[in-house]
Amino acid sequence: MSDNNQRVSNVTQVLTEALPYIQRFKGKTLVIKYGGNAMVDESLKNSFARDVVLLKAVGINPIIVHGGGPQIGSLLERVGKESQFIDGMRVTDSETMDVVEMVLGGQVNKSIVNLIHTHGGRAVGLTGKDGSLICAEKLHISRNSDDPTIQASEIIDLGHVGKVKSIDTSVIDMLIQSDFIPVIAPIGVGPDGESYNINADLVAGKMAEVLQAEKLILLTNTAGLLDSNQNLLTGLNAKQVNELIDSGVIYGGMLPKIGCALDAVQAGVTTAHIIDGRVQHALLLEMFTDEGVGTLIRGGWQ
């Protein structure tokens, strides 16, 4: 077979493989947590934007929730403010919260919106403060003392770090009906009007739950969930995931993402996916091919 015929055959195979998935997911809602390398590498940023525009063009409703930790850290460094983390969470005093809002709600959010527009899509940038989208409350964490004679746990104040209390999807519904792609910065507002910095994975998971999305997709800087031999694991149910946690296969920084995915599928989201954002067109490969490029998790215990 000539090179041209082989190319035509490969393209035809890809398109015919994608068709049933396009038909199945048309009209469905997809919540994507966008972060990691995919947000800073120029070719990956363009790849992501094209994927999102294509998803919208074939009738799927993508909703983007983005992070921006490196960008926040960079601006804090430039203004001479040291970043402090406790249990992986950024301590956020009032001055740091101003920077978080400037970076997430301004710089990062608008650059994603602009990139989608560049590739032919229509997007609207939001924070959780717009339309009372994300109602937040202060996050408190406790840590047991190293002193065995002290029974009480230490309550650690992270400042303006919050968790999702509730989500009002009215503005999201309006944007979807108007054929726009919502791009959401994970900043919530408390009952006192204060702003709260919220983990983007958690916001994406809660958004998927409230919208009863077809899929929650978390873009990461890893291939997905790997076993002890570095083989990719996929097609897992809740029971299997919990067994992997108990056996120590899932640990460290992957635990919060897995917990977010499990909460989503157990709350009615059809499937959750942890995919490698370092791969060109990872979204399309996960959505429209038989093999996919990441870890798929579904609800149920069987």
Explain what you see.
The protein has 302 residues and is an alpha/beta fold. Strand 6 and strand 7 form a beta hairpin. The mean pLDDT is 87. It has nine helices and 15 strands.
Mean pLDDT: 87
Instruction: Give the low-confidence spans.
Output: none
What is the strand content? 25-35%
Distance between the termini: 45 Å
Radius of gyration: 20 Å
Write the layout of secondary structure elements.
Elements lengths: L2 H23 L3 E6 L7 H16 L3 E6 L2 H10 L6 E2 L2 E2 L3 H25 L4 E5 L6 E11 L8 E15 L2 H8 L3 E5 L1 E3 L5 E3 L2 H12 L3 E6 L4 E2 L5 E2 L4 H9 L7 H13 L4 E6 L5 H7 L5 E5 L4
Parallel strand pairs: 1-2, 1-11, 2-8, 5-8, 11-14
Antiparallel strand pairs: 3-4, 6-7, 9-10, 12-13, 14-15
Helix pairs in contact: 3-4, 6-8
Care to give the gist of this entry?
By secondary structure, this protein is an alpha/beta fold.
Key terms:
single chain, 302 residues, alpha/beta, seven-stranded mixed beta sheet, two-stranded antiparallel ribbon, 15 strands, 26% strand, globular
